[in-house]
Amino acid sequence: MTEPRKTTFHDVRKEVFRRIREGVWPPGAVLPTEIELAEEFGCARATVNRALRELTEEGIIERRRKSGTRVKMLPDKQARFAIPIVRQEVEERGARYRYALVHRQEITAPDWLVPRIGLRRGQKVLHLQCMHYADNAPFQFEERWVNIVAVPSILEADLETVGPNEWLLREIPYTRAEISFAAVAADRRLADFLSVTEGTPLFQMERTTELGDRPVTLVRMTYHQGYRLTTTY
Question: Is 0.70 surpassed by the pTM of this model?
Answer without folding.
Answer: no
